[in-house]
Amino acid sequence: xxxxxxxxxxxxxxxxxxxxxxxxxxxxxxxxxxxxxxxxxxxxxxxxxxxxxxxxxxxxxxxxxxxxxxxxxxxxxxxxxxxxxxxxxxxxxxxxxxxxxxxxxxxxxxxxxxxxxxxxxxxxxxxxxxxxxxxxxxxxxxxxxxxxxxxxxxxxxxxxxxxxxxxxxxxxxxxxxxxxxxxxxxxxxxxxxxxxxxxxxxxxxxxxxxxxxxxxxxxxxxxxxxxxxxxxxxxxxxxxxxxxxxxxxxxxxxxxxxxxxxxxxxxxxxxxxxxxxxxxxxxxxxxxxxxxxxxxxxxxxxxxxxxxxxxxxxxxxxxxxxxx
Length: 324
Ligand SMILES: Cc1cc2nc3c(=O)[nH]c(=O)nc-3n(C[C@H](O)[C@H](O)[C@H](O)COP(=O)(O)OP(=O)(O)OC[C@H]3O[C@@H](n4cnc5c(N)ncnc54)[C@H](O)[C@@H]3O)c2cc1C
Description:
Elements lengths: L1 E5 L2 E2 L2 E2 L1 H17 L3 E6 L4 H9 L4 E5 L2 H4 L3 H14 L2 E7 L2 H14 L2 E6 L10 E6 L4 E6 L5 E5 L14 E4 L30 E5 L9 H11 L2 E4 L1 H5 L20 E5 L5 H7 L4 E6 L6 H4 L2 E4 L2 H17 L2
Parallel strand pairs: 1-4, 1-6, 4-5, 5-11, 6-10, 7-10, 12-13, 12-14, 14-15, 15-16
Antiparallel strand pairs: 2-3, 8-9
Helix pairs in contact: 4-5, 6-10
The protein binds flavin-adenine dinucleotide.
Flavin-adenine dinucleotide binds next to α7, α8, β15 and α10.
């Protein structure tokens, strides 16, 4: 028996979410007294596969071939379910990323397992298996019991700290042949926004709302984001008015993010906006209206005109960077 974890990779490297999932699986393994097997699908070289051992995987199974490199969610789910059956996994841990969201439910179906997505902490295992998950777009938590023999956990990225161990994992190729049926639908072309930090993976996000007045003022948002190594985001009306691309829109109808720092400039803080950002660890609000709802969930608030405050913030960030 074991805990199985899927280590998601992109272009030959693991994502931070993969290390979080392995850290989580390792802690769960200690709790359940079970070893941890990590599965990597894609062309990840051996030195990088070893990194999974640092985060607590006892064993790493990998599939490195062209099919694995272009694996669809269906194909990844089939391979993970196969590995779970072979390793007699009691629990399968998958990060609840974009990719993970389309893989985890498929794995659960293939294993006849109960699944909980959006999990934010280790389960309570005294007399059952109860996990805490986000609910209502991050505005509440729910505690859910999984009663099936095999369990699938889709872990919210950025919800647990990375933990390392002083150990090496046993690394071996997985004996698995993909089924052509799992490649019925394939990505033909990927067009990437170059040089930008992906919003869902950013540790810091600088975001602007209608209070920024127009797209001509986004230079300030981009400059601060550049200094801080942050991604940029916006409120829905800003994307609707074509001031910014829709992939930057955060909130109920946009992307849900959970960065360590969210800076909201000229954003009122409507409930639909908060649904996508309220799980951020630290929130800084800049708004000229002291009654703006954004201040109610902010950890730090600056009341004033964003046009005056932003240049000062940019200078302070430059000074901070220069002093490090
Ligand atoms: C079904 C539904 C789904 C929705 N989904 C989303 C969603 O996913 N994401 C989202 O963001 N919205 C969403 N909305 C819209 C949401 O209700 C708000 O209308 C929107 O979030 C407001 O955007 P805003 O804060 O940029 O603009 P506004 O509400 O116009 O607020 C602008 C803010 O800027 C401040 N301001 C103005 N000038 C300055 C200045 N010079 N300096 C400092 N501050 C200034 C103002 O005081 C104000 O607080 C949705 C709405 C509906 C009905």
